[in-house]
């Protein structure tokens, strides 16, 4: 199965407004993906919409989560198999963001939509900010809710484990590492990441055209989240 585990919707401050959950699901199907994950910045507000949108597309499964910015300014992908769990976690993350409002003139609107692209409300929280949650606290909270934690784009010069910490922390409870499409020689990063940590590839799509530009392939008999967690450890 082909999995794209990091896709941003119109709710992300840097996400294109065309990226409604409905269009994301339709585009993912067109590009031959089997499983997608919606991971907006510091929120899971559009996860209910992707859940409903995917129900109408045979052969496509969704996971739910958010890309959290830790107190160390590291991007962490947090994924769950149950949409309500993801929404609750997203609300928890939101409560740890800076006490300031989104600047719509600078960052644009942050619309929460339904599966038919109707705007329900606008998120006013400062989603582009960093939370006051450490990577350890994030991992603890995610794992206590049966989720998984992926270090996002570890090869990038900003907002990654290596850019912020300089090395992979020995005690980090991280389940996988994500390499961006511009990572270059994977062997270089494999040498820096503990051998027991699987490496995944995601699109980190902020535009519809970017969905599925790279993906992870797993041998899975079923697309359910528990099967995914089990097969991920075999990469």
List keywords for this structure.
235 residues, alpha/beta, TIM Barrel, 8-stranded mixed β-sheet, two-stranded antiparallel sheet, 20% strand, globular
Itemize the secondary structure elements and their pairings.
Layout: E1 2-7, H1 21-30, E2 35-41, H2 47-55, E3 61-69, E4 75-80, H3 83-94, H4 104-107, E5 111-113, E6 119-122, H5 135-144, E7 148-151, H6 161-165, E8 176-179, H7 186-190, E9 199-201, E10 216-217, H8 225-232
Parallel strand pairs: 1-2, 2-3, 7-8, 8-9
Antiparallel strand pairs: 1-10, 3-4, 4-7, 5-6
Helix pairs in contact: 1-2
Summarize the structure.
The protein has 8 helices and 10 strands.
Element order: H for helix, E for strand: EHEHEEHHEEHEHEHEEH
Question: In total, how many domains does the architecture comprise?
Answer: 1
> Number of helix segments?
8
Superfamily (CATH H level) name = Metal-dependent hydrolases
Distance linking N and C termini: 13 Å
CATH architecture: Alpha-Beta Barrel
Q: Strand count, sense and closure of the main sheet?
A: 8 strands, mixed
Q: What is the CA-atom radius of gyration, in angstroms?
A: 16 Å
CATH topology: TIM Barrel
Helix content: 25-40%
Strand content: 15-25%
Shape: globular
| Strand line-up across the major sheet | 9-8-7-4-3-2-1-10
- Total number of β-strand segments? 10
Structural class by helix and strand composition: alpha/beta
- Mean pLDDT figure: 97
Uncertain stretches: none
Determine and state the CATH class.
Answer: Alpha Beta
Characterize the quaternary organization of these chains. single chain
């Amino acid at each position: 199965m082909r999995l794209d585990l990091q896709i941003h919707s119109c709710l992300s401050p840097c996400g294109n407004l065309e990226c409604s959950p409905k269009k994301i699901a339709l585009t993912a199907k067109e590009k031959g993906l089997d499983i997608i994950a919606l991971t907006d910045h510091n929120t899971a507000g559009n996860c209910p919409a992707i859940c409903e949108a995917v129900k109408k597309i045979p052969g496509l499964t969704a996971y739910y989560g958010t890309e959290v910015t830790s107190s160390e300014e590291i991007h962490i992908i947090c994924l769950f198999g149950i949409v309500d769990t993801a929404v609750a976690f997203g609300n928890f993350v939101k409560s740890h963001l800076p006490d300031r409002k989104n600047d719509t003139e600078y960052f644009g609107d942050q619309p929460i939509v339904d599966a038919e692209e109707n705007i329900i409300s606008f998120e006013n929280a400062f989603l582009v900010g960093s939370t006051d949650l450490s990577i350890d606290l994030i991992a603890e909270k995610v794992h206590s809710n049966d989720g998984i934690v992926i270090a996002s784009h570890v090869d990038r010069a900003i907002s990654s484990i290596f850019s912020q910490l300089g090395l992979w922390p020995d005690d980090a409870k991280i389940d996988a590492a994500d390499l961006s499409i511009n990572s270059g020689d994977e062997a270089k990063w494999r040498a820096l990441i503990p051998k027991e940590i699987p490496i995944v590839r995601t699109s980190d799509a902020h535009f519809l055209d970017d969905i599925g530009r790279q993906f992870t392939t797993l041998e899975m008999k079923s697309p359910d989240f528990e099967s995914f967690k089990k097969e991920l450890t075999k990469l």
